[in-house]
Amino acid sequence: MRDIDQRLDGDRRGAVPSYSHSHDVTKAVIDLGNTLVGQGLLSDATTPEVIVVSAHDAVDVAALANRVFSRFGDWSLPFQPSESDGVIRLAQLSRNILRLVAENSVSLAVVALNDLFREQPVILHMSLEAPWSLHHHDPAHAAVQGWRIGALAAIGDLISSGGWNRIGVCAGADCNNLFLDDTKNRSQRFCSYACQNRAKVRAYRLRQREERVRRVGR
Ligand SMILES: [Zn+2]
Questions:
Q1: CA 182–ligand 1 middle distance (angstroms)
Q2: Cα 171 to ligand 1 centre (Å)
Q3: How far is the CA of 196 from the centre of ligand 1 (A)?
Q4: Sequence spans of domains, the chain
Q5: Rounded to two decimals, what is the model's pTM?
Q6: Which residue of 41, 181, 211, 214 could cross-link 166, Cys pair, CB 3.0 to 4.6 Å?
Q7: Does the structure show a pLDDT above 80 at 151?
């Protein structure tokens, strides 16, 4: 009996991720949006210009989506280059909602989410293998259709479980990247070490300049 208990315990330890599926999916979709903005394939402008995706970019976009979502081993179909417009749209929808959340306009984010939920039929489905994630789409759906529902459901779940105040916008100059703050005391301000270091260098140079001005002024 003890052996079985220990084994179950071990299985549980191995299977249970450190964060919830919704947390991980939200992080993945944030990553997708940040990367597409970095590549110039998604715009944060209020009235975004139409970005034409070339055949070459379409292959890259599909590869990126596959990379971002591949950590979820139970996904069904891979993204195809023909789905690249849908991938960009998915990233944009999620990003717009997450940006509202980051700006504390959670009610507006929820209204937008509900509008999108109404467009999609939700089919509950549990993956057959650990960690037995609950999905909101038919596994036979094309990747972009499935992940669109999956990403929006994950954001909804994150908001409803109180994680909404962990979504932030990078404080780096010229950086609009979003992040999901995993620090214990919710102290994350930057999307990456690169942005954090750039801000440090900037602050250091500013202090030096102020110091010089003070010395000259004396
Ligand atoms: Zn940043």
A1: 16
A2: 7
A3: 8
A4: 18-217
A5: 0.83
A6: 181
A7: yes
